[in-house]
Design a protein that fits this description.
The protein is an alpha+beta fold. The chain has one domain. It is built from 3 helices and 3 strands. It has a 3-stranded antiparallel β-sheet with strand order 1-3-2. Strand 2 and strand 3 form a beta hairpin. It is elongated.
Length: 93
C-alpha cells in the first residue's frame, strides 16, 4: 500500500532568524544544528564579489529528508508486521 505525501512550502529557503521564529528554536541551537548537519544550509552571496554571504535554512532538503525518514520507518514497520504474522501463524499450528 502506497501512501501519498503532499508538502507545500511557501519558500524554498529561510533565514536563520525567520526559522527561529517559525520553530521556536533559539539561534544557538540552530547554529549547532547547522554545524552538525541536522539542518542543511544554503549560502546566498550578497554581492558580485561573493565576499559576503547570508546563511539560509534549506527547507526543501529538510522536507526531502523527512519524507525519506518516514518511508524508511514505514518499510521497517511492514517488515516487523510480516515477521510477527509469520511467528503467530507458526505458533498456532
Amino acid at each position: 500500500m502506497q501512501n501519498n505525501i503532499s508538502i507545500t512550502l511557501l519558500v524554498p529557503h529561510m533565514t536563520k532568524e525567520r526559522y527561529s521564529e517559525a520553530t521556536g528554536l533559539d539561534m544557538s541551537t540552530i547554529d549547532l544544528m547547522l554545524g552538525d548537519g541536522r539542518l542543511s544550509p544554503f549560502r546566498h552571496r550578497l554581492g558580485k564579489e561573493g565576499k559576503r554571504e547570508k546563511v539560509l535554512i534549506n527547507l526543501v532538503a529538510l522536507s526531502a529528508d523527512a519524507i525519506r525518514s518516514y518511508q524508511e520507518a514505514e518499510q521497517q514497520a511492514v517488515k516487523v508486521t510480516k515477521s510477527l504474522s509469520r511467528n503467530s501463524l507458526k505458533s498456532t499450528q
